[in-house]
C-alpha cells in the first residue's frame, strides 16, 4: 500500500511539473498570455537621478583624491582600443572597461559595453558572459582628429560629453548624470520626498530617451520612448496594482521618427488580474 501511495504522489508531481513546463512554453510562445511582468519596475527601483546631494559630495571628494593609473571613480579598469578602416578613413576608439558589474537601473535606456567576441561596443542588451561595461574616459578619433570624448560610469554616459568636426571645432556639448541627460525634465508629487510624477528626458531641447510616469506610491504607470521629440515603439500603461506590475494597455507608435501615414494603435489590453482581454488582429502567436 505504501508503495502505491508513493507511486501516486510521484505521478502527481510529474504531472504538475509537465503542466508548469507547458505553461512556461505557452508564455514563451505567446508573450501576451499574461499582463503580469517583472517586478523590476517596482517602487524600490525608482530612479533617483542622483538627487542625493550628500552622495554627490562624497563622489566629488573621492574624485579629488590622488588619481591612480587606470582607476576611475574608485574602480580599477583595463584599457581597450579598436581600429577600423573604411574608404581610406581610419577610426580609432580608445576606452576603458571594468570587470566589475553593477546592477543596471532598469530605467536607463543605453548601457554601453565592450563585446569581446565581436570586438565592438554595444549600447543594448548587456551580457556579462560576453563582455564588460565601459567605465572611465572614452575617445573617438578619425584620421588623427578627435571627434568625440567623454566618460562612462558602469556603462552609462557620465559628466560632460563633447563632439567635434574634422577641424576640431566644437559641435555639441551634453551633460549626463549616470546615464540621465542633465536637462531631463522632472515633475513631482512631493519634491521634498523625491516622489516623482513624470520623468521626461531632454537632449538638444527635444524629448529624447525613455519617458516614465509614476503613480503617487511610486508604482510605474506609463513607459515609452522618444526620439527627436517623437513617440516611437511600444508605449505601455500599467495598472496601479500595489503588489505586482501588471500591464493595462500597449500602444504601438512609429518605429522610426517622422514616419508618414503611420497611425498609432492599441496593440493589446489586459484586465487588473493580468488576463488578456484584447489583441489587435494578426498579432497572435505563431
Automatic annotation (TrEMBL):
Residues 1-19 form the signal peptide. Residues 22-41 are annotated as: Disordered. It comes from the Bacteria. Keywords: Signal. This is Antitoxin component YwqK of YwqJK toxin-antitoxin module. It comes from Mongoliibacter ruber.
